[in-house]
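B., you asked whether I could sanity-check this one before it goes into the benchmark set. Here's the sequence:
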Amino acid sequence: MLSFVLVLGIALYDAFTTPPVYISSATVKIDTRTLSTAGDGAAVRAVAQSVDYYDRIFRTGIFRNELLDSLSADEASIIAQNQNLSLENLVAFNLSLDADAVQSFFRITASASDPDLAYRLADVSSHLFQKRLIDIESESMVESDVYLDEQITILRNKLETKEIEIQNFSREQHIIPGNPGSAGNTGFMAFQTKLDEIEVQRQLTAIKLRIYRQRQDEILRRQYTYNNVDLLLDQIDQEIRSIGAKADSLGSLQATLLNSLDQTHPDVIEINKQIRDIQLKENEVYARIYQTSSPQKQNLLPTLKAKIDAAEDAMFELTTEAEYYDIKIQEFTADGNTAYFNNELHLRRLMRSQELYETNYNVLIQLKEESQLTKATQSGGVKMIDPANRPNTPVPSTASRKILFGAILGMSLGLGAVFLLEYMDTSLKSSDEISRFLQIPLLGEIPKIDVGKPTRKWLGFLPGTIISKEEAYSSRIIAHFDPKDPIVESYRNIRTSLLFTFTSGDPLQAFVISSPNPSEGKSLTTSNLATVFAQSGKKTLIIDTDLRRPVIHKIFGLPKSPGITDVLVGQTDWNEAIHQTDIDNLFVLPAGTSPPNPGEMIGSPRMTEILDILKENMDYVILDTPPVVAAIDAAVLGAKTQGIILVLNMEETKRDSAKFSIEQIQRAGSKVLGGLLNNVDVNRRYGYYYNQYYYRYKYYGNYDTTESENPTTPPI
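And here's what the prediction gave me:
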């Protein structure tokens, strides 16, 4: 119950003290810009980043500091409106960047307890985010411009050099640049051009074939599988196409140069270096795709094998075509026109190199112009689609959900605590557990009822009228002071159960009353049970054998000495140590002088002799002993009598402790007559019906003012 109230209270407090939340958002579009290096538009650079990239920019210290500087003028009002929340925390926890459902669209969201503050956060952050992307793009543009200027200068010089070389060669060989010559010459140049194109295709196919085989070897080594093969291969093809235009241009230029120059020429070395760079770039692309692809179910090997087979077939066809055109060229040169053809061929190669340099030069100029245009627009690829607006209404309150959740959580915690305590509590809680766990007979239950009388208050260990210690002990003998009480009826039922236990064989004469632990009511039970035995007209003797902490003499207001210890050592005769109480037929043999060795005295043969004498002179002998767990005295005396009755305190006596006591008694050769469940809360167990029984019992009991002094049969 406490946990339920506590958690529900926290939920109520949070629900009714949490300020309203206003949300304002702005939507921006981040364009993906594509640049090309060839007339066919083949992509070589795509400015496209992931959501994490933009979110990282959104969370950087530079962006946060710029935002704080922009809001610093309003810091006083922000702090006043958001108590216990600094401006830094407000920006860190109340701003977010999320990808929209539409591709390339992003939403910047701000939340605050004030609508103006939410709007200002969203508006300022969206414009600052756009500015930050422009700054990053500008920094990249500076580096790009430097590179473009360098490449433009290099190509311009090469182009000018190539033009001068063409003019000089044409003048020396008396050849007009661009003159196709005769029909035969035209066929020869067509074959040579086709052969150059095939050579470029062979180089590209060889690159693809080598990469496919590398992928195959890596997969065989690592045994990786992938879920979506088509998607992965599309990525590889897209990456290849993205650099394909550059590779085509470099391959064509390489073929042209090799027809007129050897491998040591600076232009050929430069072209070879650029081709190697392209190949390394391709390898990096494949490695990146390979590393970021997650292994799944479908195997990539069959598809790669098909790609390898197709590339090998293409390589074979290209090689065959190259051999064909090479034969045709040899036929032309065999007719005696070798010198002319060589000059024409060299001129064509020079012109193609010029065209290649001119094409690349124009591309670089175009890129330079695009860079200048981007700088002029200063958009950074970010467009404001939906600016931030001031929210008019707060976000719907979650107070009802919080209260409901708090109630459910409180009940769950409460029930969990109850079940946990119930699981951890191993005390005896009902009379059924005596039979189920301890496997001993249940002789009865002794209730605990408080009806306001001082004697009851002392019996129930509750605050009551202040009386002396002697009166307090004496008032606990409820069987004497209030014989019509239902509690006394419980003791009579116990007496009846004991008497019927010994109806066959030896009659009941002497037994021990003990408990597993101290303060479980054994002495009080001994006194009241002995009283009801005495009220039946039988001479009943209580022997206080708890020599360590005797209490029987206090209950009956008697001196402690002489007692049983004095009788055992021979200082007093047994009949002189026995005291007559105020209750007819009830006698008490106190503990006597405290001995240094109570255990040895209890287990001595002299104790057995005294018990035999007392049994001959008394109808019933009841021994009050120390707790079983604390000392062996109870088990020893149980073996000298007819058995032991264990007093078990409800919700106090642990099952393990009671079971250990029974085992200890049985090991000593004694018998457990049964168990008494003491201090039973009948109001909780039986409620209204027990109280009705109590008052009716008292009403009808008033007609019977005396009890038979000499019953011939045990009362039922």
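One thing to flag: The mean pLDDT is 74. Otherwise nothing jumped out at me.
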